[in-house]
Amino acid sequence: MKVEILGCSGGMGAGQYTTCYRVNDHILLDAGTGLGKLTHDEQLKIKHIFITHSHMDHICFLPLLIDNLFEHLEEPLQVYALPEVLETLRVHIFNWEIWPDFSTLPNDKTPVVKFNAITPHKPLTIEDLTFTAFPVEHIVPTCGYHLVDQQGKSLAFTGDTTFGPEVLKELNRLGKLDVLMTECAFPNRLDELAKLAKHLTPSLLDKFIHTLDKSPKQIWLSHLKPSQTEEIKAELAQLNLDTQVRLLESGELLAV
Fold first, then answer.
1. Among 52, 16, 2, 8, which residue's Cα sits nearest to residue 227?
2. Labelling 169: which of 74, 111, 125, 180 has CA 20 to 30 A away?
3. Three-class secondary structure of residue 56 per DSSP
């Protein structure tokens, strides 16, 4: 499986794009501003979008993508998320005040987008990849996704989360991972804020990884706040983790 890092920043600024990953050619994980890096032809290849939660930095370009592709789609764009997330999108985004409800356009029988409610722990196979949602710990309903290809390579994407017993249990049940793709939003000095906002710091990440039953082969980190990136990087460099840690950068194309 190949993963293109379209956006991985925890904020905005020159060269900074928020969370969006393209898996192979036709699937997206989240739809932040990184989605805007795709050309129109590349956008047309997208068939499936998995949303972790409803925060703006993870969904802001979803409405624009649907609008861009409206008259070109021959079959509905498939969007997957927890029922609570879909309800938030329906009430607050696709409500005809912020944006049209494209799930009813051009009509109810042939909409350009279909919103699919997912159930945690229930696998879904798409294009030789199996996706299984699992709960994580954030301040709004949020899930991560466990991806497994036909060769058995596995990646777990937590989306936004903090360190806690529930997400630890969920990751332990996945077994040995080739890649754990998670976040590290704040430096250690903002540990209390991170716990309140339910994000990770280098210190919390350290506890997280050392508490896992099995360390992943690689850890891919994202969502660093732009104004604190160098501080977070310095603290991450001090960690003693028995696995390879990679700080993601927009534009990378990685293989699992």
1. 16
2. 125
3. helix
Is the separation of the CB atoms in 8 and 250 below 8 Å? yes
Give the pLDDT of residue 211: 95
Question: For residue 183, what is the enclosing H or E element?
Answer: strand 179-183
Residue 175 backbone class (left: φ over 0; alpha: ψ -120 to 50; beta: rest): left
Q: Which domain holds residue 235?
A: 2-255
Contacts of 199 (CB under 8 A, 6+ apart): 160, 161, 162, 183, 185, 186, 223
The CATH number of residue 227's host domain is: 3.60.15.10
pTM for this predicted structure: 0.97
For the chain, how many structural domains are there in total?
A: 1
Give 10-residue mean pLDDT values along the chain (256 residues): 97 95 97 98 97 98 97 94 98 98 92 97 96 98 98 97 95 97 98 96 96 96 96 96 95 97
Tokens of 24: 């192979």
Look at residues 84, 16, 14, 13 and name the one whose alpha carbon lies nearest to residue 250: 16
Q: How far apart are CA 58 and CA 8, in angstroms?
A: 10
Contact 222, 248 (CB under 8 A): yes
